[in-house]
Each structure stands twice: as structure tokens, then as C-alpha cells.
Design a protein that fits this description.
- Strand 1 (about 5) and strand 2 form a beta hairpin.
- This protein has an eight-stranded parallel beta barrel with strand order 3-4-5-9-10-11-12-13, surrounded by five helices.
- The chain is an alpha/beta fold and about 325 residues long.
- The relative contact order is 0.13.
- It is built from ten helices and 13 strands.
- The chain has helices at about 35-50, 65-75, 115-125, 145-160, 175-185, 200-215, 255-270, 275-285, 300-305, 315-330, and strands spanning about 5, 15, 15-20, 55, 80-85, 90, 95-100, 105-110, 130-135, 160-170, 190-195, 215-220, 290-295.
- It has a single domain (about 5-235, about 285-315), classed as NADP-dependent oxidoreductase domain (TIM Barrel), CATH 3.20.20.100.
- About 35% of the residues lie in helices and about 20% in strands.
- The chain binds NADP nicotinamide-adenine-dinucleotide phosphate.
- NADP nicotinamide-adenine-dinucleotide phosphate binds near residues 169, 295, 300 and 307.
- NADP nicotinamide-adenine-dinucleotide phosphate binds near residues 226 and 276.
Length: about 325
């Protein structure tokens, strides 16, 4: 059984490792997701039978598809599971900032209280559940939008539609610490879901400091830089229009050798711990702070079963230092 941890200061507990279902939505953003709905649901069911009890999704993952697929798996024993989804990005109202085109729909970023509440209500319908364990604001609001955003989250808590709440991608703000401090004036923030991996050490440090100061759970997303640190990258991906990896620097042809060199450099450290390089990279995140919650991505049981080994690994300081040095070298050459 996966170890449980408290989410922020809430009374919600979640497994230390959670399965993200972004890639399962497929569509524009993960163009190499194969398999029909039945096959993807089978994968989720198998993950559940293998001991996964925590799932993360979002309305925009496959524009509703990921939530719908997940609904098939969570209904049987919902009360034993931890489910998070998101709000603030929708393709319902043409209001706010146009974020991107996805799956033929225009996705807008909107923080109006009524729309945030509707985002949540629509997720509940797609997920076929009565409540969400943690609702996460998908994109970081401007400082003057935080009050209204927090009002929506507090109302959803009062209506018992959500059990706790958090923010994501606050590093999109020039003042991430101020974002959290402003939100805390209106209510509780229990979780920050941020992109965090070995290739972005300074940002990991920045979020770790904020979380430790305010006792907030640090939930990493894209711990393998969308598969790059697992060696799942090739120059073709950079040409897939609107795929979530096509603008990622590490997937550009000129930078791919840097990632592959880094992986080669990490192999001896992984061998020391008897694990794969992806597992080593996730163990590195686990070593950053006890507040870390590991949100991982997988579409195949083979990846998932391997990744779970990270929970058993406690990296020693010298291994962490060696990994830092190797990663810093790759980052310094990134163009
Ligand atoms: N808040 C946000 O804005 C945001 C943004 C991005 C992601 N997220 C969340 O974070 C979750 C994870 O992100 P991500 O999917 O980008 O995660 P990731 O771990 O960075 O990348 C997932 C990729 O790594 C591969 N992989 C994972 N474990 C592996 C292993 N042990 N061996 C070999 N390959 C392995 C997977 O392969 P296979 O697919 O072949 O199994 C998949 O291609 C998402 O599902 C989502 O819930 C949130």
C-alpha cells in the first residue's frame, strides 16, 4: 500500500504518489496517445488494481475526455480514493484570456466566481462524483483576481463539493510568493501543483521554500519533463503542432543530445540504487522535502510499475549532489 500524507493543513490525506491522467486525454496535447477509450479505461482499472488510489485530472485534459475516462474507474469505491481536478480553464465562455486552441476548441482562462463554480460543477458531472478531494486553480491568477478566486473556492468548500484547494503554475507569476500570501489572507491554500524536476532545480527550490514557510503540500507535476528524462524524446515531437512538448526546449533537436548525455551520466547512480533513471529522477524529487507529493504520468503499466519503486528509495546526499552537478551541466548548455 502506498504511504499516505496529509494535504497542507486540511483533513484530507492522499497517497504519496498519484497518477496523472493528462496524457490519457490524448488529442492535441499528447498526439502519441494510442488506444481507444476502452483500452485507456482498462489501463486505469489495472492501475487501480495494482494499488493506485490517487488520481489527478483536469477539464482541459482531452477537453473532458480524461475526466470521463476516470469516472469509469472511481465510482466503485470512491470513498477510498483521492481525486483532484482543476478550474479556471474552460471552453464554455469566450471570456478572459484565450489560452490556446485544443481539440478544435478555444480554451479561455477565466476567474469569475460563477465560472469557477461552474467549472467545478461540470467536472463533478463528468467525473460522476459528488465531491472532489482537491480542486486546483489551473493557471495562476493576477493578484487582483485572487480574492474572487478564493471566494469561489471557499463557497465550494462550504457546499462540500470540494474538500480542499490549491493553486498550480504560480511560477507563471512574477511574484509567486505574493500570490500565495495574498490567497492566504482569504482562506487556506493546501497544495501547490508545480512543474518540478531535476532540470529545473532553482524553481524547485523556490517552491519548496514557499511550501515549507506556509505548510503547504508541494505536488510536483511533469517529474520527468514530459518523458524527456525517461529518454522518450525525438526531434519529430517538436513538429507536432500544439502538442504540449513541441515548444519544450528539451525536445528541440539541438538539445536532445544534452538530455541523452545527462541520462547516460545518471545511469551509474541509478545502478547504485538498483533502479532505472526515471525512478532515480523521481526519488530525487522525493528527497527535496517531506512535503513532496509525487504526481507522475504514465500510459503503460510497465512505466507505472517501474515508477512505483521510487517510493522505496531514499537517496543519500552524495547521490543528490552528483545528480545536481550533472543536471546543472546540461542546463548550462541549453539553448
Ligand atoms: N498543472 C499543470 O499545468 C500540469 C501540467 C502538466 C502535467 N500535469 C499533471 O502531472 C501529470 C504528470 O505529468 P506528465 O505526464 O508530464 O509526467 P512525466 O512523468 O514528466 O512524463 C510522463 C512520460 O514519462 C514516461 N514515463 C513515466 N514513468 C516512466 C518509467 N518509469 N519508465 C519509462 N518511461 C516513463 C511516460 O511513458 P508512457 O506514457 O509510455 O507510460 C510518459 O511518456 C499529468 O498527468 C497531470 O496530471 C499538470
Amino acid at each position: 500500500m502506498i504511504q499516505m500524507m496529509q494535504i497542507g493543513k486540511s483533513n484530507v490525506t492522499a497517497p504519496k504518489m498519484i497518477l496523472g491522467t493528462f496524457a490519457l486525454g490524448g488529442g492535441t496535447s499528447w498526439q502519441d496517445t494510442t488506444g481507444d477509450d476502452a483500452e485507456l479505461v482498462r489501463f486505469l482499472q489495472e492501475a487501480r488494481e495494482y494499488g493506485i488510489t490517487g488520481f489527478d485530472t483536469a477539464p482541459v485534459y482531452g477537453t473532458g475526455r480524461s475526466e470521463r475516462l476516470l469516472s469509469e474507474v472511481i465510482r466503485k469505491d470512491r470513498e477510498k480514493l483521492y481525486v483532484s481536478t482543476k478550474c479556471s480553464l474552460n471552453w464554455r465562455v469566450k471570456e478572459g484570456i484565450m489560452e490556446y486552441e485544443r481539440d478544435g476548441k478555444q480554451v479561455f482562462r477565466c476567474y469569475r466566481k460563477e465560472e469557477l463554480i461552474r467549472d467545478c460543477e461540470e467536472s463533478l458531472r463528468r467525473l460522476k462524483t459528488d465531491y472532489i478531494d482537491c480542486l486546483i486553480v489551473h493557471r495562476c491568477p493576477e493578484l487582483d483576481q485572487i480574492g474572487e478566486t478564493m471566494e469561489a473556492l471557499e463557497e465550494l468548500k462550504n457546499r462540500e463539493l470540494i474538500r480542499c484547494a490549491g493553486f498550480s503554475n504560480i511560477l507563471g507569476s512574477k511574484t509567486p510568493e505574493l500570490v500565495v500570501e495574498t490567497a492566504l489572507r482569504y482562506g487556506r491554500v493546501d497544495l501547490l501543483q508545480e512543474k518540478a524536476n531535476l532540470l529545473m532545480r532553482k524553481k524547485v527550490e523556490q517552491i519548496r521554500a514557499i511550501c515549507e514557510k506556509h505548510d503547504i503540500t508541494f505536488q510536483c507535476h511533469s517529474p520527468l519533463e514530459r518523458g524527456a528524462l525517461a529518454g522518450k524524446l525525438h526531434a519529430g515531437i517538436a513538429t507536432w503542432k500544439n502538442d504540449n512538448r513541441s515548444n519544450n526546449k528539451w525536445f528541440q533537436e539541438k538539445n536532445i543530445p544534452l538530455v541523452l548525455d545527462l541520462i547516460e551520466g545518471l545511469k551509474p547512480v541509478a545502478e547504485q540504487y538498483g533502479c532505472s533513471v526515471p525512478v532515480l529522477c523521481i526519488a530525487w524529487l522525493k528527497a527535496q522535502t517531506p512535503l513532496m507529493n509525487l504526481l507522475i504520468g504514465a500510459r503503460r503499466m510497465e512505466s507505472l510499475k517501474d515508477t512505483l519503486h521510487a517510493l522505496e528509495i531514499d537517496l543519500k546526499e552524495d547521490a543528490v549532489k552528483k545528480m545536481n552537478t550533472l543536471a546543472d551541466r546540461a542546463v548550462s548548455q541549453l539553448s
